[in-house]
Amino acid sequence: MNEVSLTKMRWRLFLLGVLKIPMIHYVRPKLIFCNDEEMQIKIPFRRRTKNHLNSMYFGALNIGADLAAGLFVYYLGERMSRNVTLAFKSSKADFLKRPESHVFFHCAKGNFIREKIYEASQNGERVNFSLPVTAKNVAGDVVAEFDMEVSIRVK
Fold this sequence. Notes:
The protein has 155 residues and is of the alpha+beta class. The protein has four helices and six strands. A six-stranded antiparallel β-sheet has the order 1-2-4-5-6-3. A hairpin with a 4-residue loop joins strand 1 and strand 2. The protein is globular, with a radius of gyration of 15 Å.
């Protein structure tokens, strides 16, 4: 397993937003932590991410879920020395409570993702799977649950 530092992943997240996906840069996500088992992303609650009801806009929530799942797959691919390409096939969201503070997105399926990366590298075909992402506010209350369907291929 390759060593991929938190600083390196934060830098890659910044570059992804600046160079490839400007909407990510616009909401200014923060990578809180990542390891082989879980990843956590924070979307700050501020004017850019608020809606007219003074809660976090659902588009900003979807960006957080996208990053928690997608960046985690990328991170584990880097750790396994695999060139993983990914796309999202679908997204299902249940919004449970109005998020009126910073929101933390958590994905904890590291072993499952590694198995799928290994499977994709063995057969050379695309592999589709769902990743659950939980969004919590500062108080620790679950504000949304996402089911992100990811399609990966290892080159």
